[in-house]
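Quick start: read one record
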Amino acid sequence: MQNQNSRAAGTALLRSCFRLLFLTVFFLLLENNTLFAQSKGVTLSGKIQDAQTKAVLPYVNIVLKTEADSAFVAGTITNEEGLFSLASVKKGKYQLIASFVGYKMAKQTVLVGQLSDFLDLGSLYLTEDRQILEEVKILGQQQGISSQMDKKTFLAADNLSQSGGSVLQLMNNLPGVTTSQEGKLQLRGSDKVVVLIDGKQTALTGFGSQTGLDNLPASAIEKIEIINNPSAKYDANGNAGIINIIFKKNEQYGWNGKVGLAAGLGALWIKRENLPSIRPQFQNTPKINPSFSINHRKHKSNIFLQGDWLYTQTLNKNEFSTRTYDTGEYIIQQIKRNRTTTYATVKTGIDYTFNSSNTLSVSGLFNREKILDNGDNPYFNRDFSNRYRLWQFLEDEVKYTAMATAVFVHKFKQPGRLLNVNYNYTFHREDENYFFTNTLPASIGMDSFKLLSDEQVSDFNIDYIRPLKHGRLESGVKLRRRSIPVNMQFFPGANSPLDVSAGGWANYYETIPALYGNYVFENDKVELEGGLRVEYVKVDYQVNPNHNTYKSDGYNYTQPFPNLRLAYKLNDKNKISLFFNRRVDRPNEVDIRIFPKYDEPELIKVGNPTLKPQFTSSMELGYKNNWLKGNLYAALYHRITDGTITRIATQVPGSVLLYSIFQNAGRSYNSGIELVWQQELAKWISINAGVNVYQNTINAFSVTNKYPVPTNYKADKQQLVSGNVKLNSLAHLPKGFDLQLTAIYLAPDIIPQGRIEKRFSVDMGLKKNVQKGKGDVFINATDLFNTMQINKRITGNGFTLQSTDYYETQVIRVGYNRKF
């Protein structure tokens, strides 16, 4: 029956894919072409020497011409040390010609590939005698994103339908990326995604999680990189891949800047009325996002300052559910959360060039996030004749983040040969105050708790890059030290449901030294990238000895994490690539945090300090085909995960309370196919479509939830075919208007102990350039038809939970941006 359901779900998904694709092409009204960042070209370098004496030859003329028609491309002369370089060379075949008085002219065939930005030709020898030079082949980086097939880059400014929103909303439109109501990102069906800011892990996005993305303004972002198969130079954490968020930074000479203002409204109508006796849902929720950036570049220095402020009210959760127990009990409930958020970010810094070889960049970032949640959770019997409980809470939370970064770059005389020394320090404070009112049929109780957490992270990195004739070498070391002391204090009232003995303190300490090496090679047919990262991790989790369930725990390991990419170029327009890598997902501190969370008093979430890392091996076969004004990328992938991390909900015997606790659930698999198609249909309209179909499998497993009392849980094997479809188009209309429309379909999928049903939404954006291109105005709408809602079914030991969340998804915004 499971296999029949899987086949039926897969067939339904494919029918939906073709239906949506047909509608998109028919109306020609879909979103953004999501332009890929363009390469600046390759820098070629080398040295000219006398063939007999090996002496360097200064002032030699160097000319680069196309091989096909001998058209001039670039030229230079060698310096006093015989060195030369040619910048911004695009992909193709060339003739490199060296000439000098008294020496015979020398020619070399040059092949510029697509894997390295800097390539070293080595020494070229000139002689007065006749000499036949061997062909030299050179590689470089091709324009566009998918030639290497290891990274996809998207410009935030091209996403019209999410202008003025958050980074999380922006990512919802990117191919292969899906988002959940809880703020979790997924790549190809897995939520184990590492989110970087400017290539670094920070507390803004979480060290191993994605906290804060729903409040980070998209207006602060320049571009987003998606790396499905990271090389050894990246941290080994995150089996699904890496998403790198690049902040805006202008480096033009003189004074430059940009100001913007966006405003909007959400929750324009009620999707479902509240259950009786609770406070109203948020409606017509305001969104305000002013932003600015400014920089001044002159001579040796570049100074920049950027600021963003976001104020938003949101119906963050509005879930209606029923719980059915084997004992015959039936509970109807609602979880409503009205959220008000104020989010301010300031980033500043200076880049200083001492000379042509040495540069120092110092930057700082400060962020303050204020969250006020007002929640109502009523619980009724089947016919609403009896209200068992009304649980109301106020969460008053403030988060502070301060980050300081210093980067020193030494450029050797050989272009592209770099030594990079980087130190990054992050401080992050969580100051949470919860106040609860517990109304029972016979009493009213007032409870509260306070949580204070101060996270400090120090990262020190040294990276070295050396260009070669046919590629490059990369190597480096990294050292991380991280500490998170947490203190939870409970203040119970009358008839309190709070577990006071589960409070106290807990200290998290993490030490990670790592080293890596990576080699890149290319000739006219073959590309190879291979690397190895070796990582030692030691985690100590010290727990209050008076805790009623958990004791101090932790883990350590020394593990290799290899990566390999092998590609074969069938011709200039077709290429096949094979990827392999091994990665790890280390539990984040909140995953092992021992304190119960009471924003929902009858489904209580608790961490697990005995949780261990999960290790994943990934394989991918990719194919890229380019044609005039379009391309297609197809990938088959398979992931095997041991020690799968997931939440398991169990019912304590004799109680209707459910406890959801992280566990290692054994082995799981994720296999699928991804298709990304881009096409310029006409000069005025372009389209891209992404289809991702995958099968998630979780083997049978059994675990024991220790809190509050040991409770065993066994699960049979789960398997389901799922996926998603995203269709985007950008139309350039008369009089400077741009129109974008995005359609997203998410197929049913399995979740821990259950299933989540299909979801669908449409986003739209319209922009017009004004003030001779220096300004623009826009209007956009997310979830235009208000169709997005989350339906879930969870089955546990003796209970079934069926829920639908009608949270806020539809937002309409208007805005203005001005460059100066």
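The longest strand covers residues 301-325.
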